[in-house]
Amino acid sequence: MKSRFGAAGLCLLVLYFAYHAFAGEKGLGRWSDAQIELEDRKTELARIETEITRLQTDIRRLTPGSVDPDFVEAMAREKLAFVYPNEVVLLVSERTPAN
Q1: What are the phi and psi torsion angles at 48 (to 5°)?
Q2: Which residues are CB-contacts of 66 (< 8 A; sequence separation ≥ 6)?
């Protein structure tokens, strides 16, 4: 009788640790979720680093002493709707999809 209780207790102990190894707070299930989150964060980091590089390039192109006149003109056209006197401007209205 003693060995049956011991075996049952040992089985319960093994099941307890097995459950926590797979489904616990730091188990394999949480580990796989953490790996997915890590990949998402790496993708976001790469996107942010690309944006930083682009902004640093824009800053270099606008730094006094090395201003890129073509870049300044492109920015004026885009942001301020700048046009030269003899240019023809075509305005296109945005269409909303029909419901």
Answers
A1: -65, -40
A2: 60
> Closest Cα to residue 62, out of 77, 70, 49, 50?
70
Per-residue confidence of the chain (99 residues) as pLDDT tens digits? 568 878 888 888 888 877 777 777 777 777 788 889 999 999 999 999 999 999 999 888 888 888 888 888 888 888 888 888 998 888 888 877 765
d(CA 62, CA 75): 11
| H runs (alpha helix) in the chain | 2-23, 28-62, 69-80
61's CB contacts (< 8 A; 6+ apart) are: 67, 68, 71
Q: 81: alpha, beta or left, given left = phi > 0 and alpha = psi -120 to 50? A: left
